[in-house]
Design goal:
about 180 residues, Rossmann fold, six-stranded parallel sheet, 9 helices, 6 strands, about 20% strand
């Protein structure tokens, strides 16, 4: 049952390739960006580390400004491989945290997000895919990616579910702040 839990002390938030030129082609970009920012805000309040990647930024541009503005620090890991795990600096950073759970957001669901998920599962990580914080250019490609990751063993969930799993209790200041954000 441990793979289904969100423990702030054992979790890393991964934001995959939410970049200017890539986002421009996504119909669902606004909700993906909003939901990713909700997760970033919670991560900041709970001291959950955040890793941001950028696929070939010379061609796809930097991370979208809304995400950059929400981050506590902007130090993206640049990559050419579709899977984040194909970038040695990414794996080194992720493994140095000694966390077992990865919350996964990003673009595109059926390419970089999918390949990253498969490789993370192969490395023994528990992957929680925020299905409303990922997108592809087409709904069919998004669906294929989500179903593929579920079949591979990822936990398919939503931003709001993740937020409240991490919070665990009502009545705290963090709960009040997050509750206001999602209304």
């Amino acid at each position: 049952m441990k793979k289904f839990a969100i423990d702030k002390d054992d979790t890393t938030l991964l934001v995959v390739d939410i970049q200017d030129r890539l986002a421009a082609a996504m119909k669902m970009k606004a909700s993906v960006i909003t939901n990713t920012i909700h997760l970033i805000e919670l991560a900041k309040m709970l001291d959950v580390p955040i890793i941001v990647t950028e696929q070939y930024p010379k061609g796809l541009g930097p991370t979208v400004s809304e995400i950059i503005d929400a981050l506590p620090a902007y130090h993206p890991i640049e990559k050419l491989s579709f899977s984040c795990c194909g970038e040695p600096n990414f794996m080194e950073l992720l493994k140095s945290r000694n966390h077992k759970t990865v919350i996964l957001t990003g673009m595109e669901t059926h390419i970089c997000v999918l390949q990253t998920c498969i490789d993370l599962l192969g490395e023994g990580f528990f992957v929680h895919l925020a299905m409303d914080a990922v997108c592809s250019r087409t709904k069919a490609s998004w669906r294929v990616g989500v179903e593929f990751m579920r079949d591979a063993g990822a936990i398919i969930t939503s931003t709001e579910t993740l937020l409240f799993q991490a919070l665990k209790v009502a009545g705290t200041e963090v709960f009040k702040t997050i509750s206001k954000r999602i209304k």
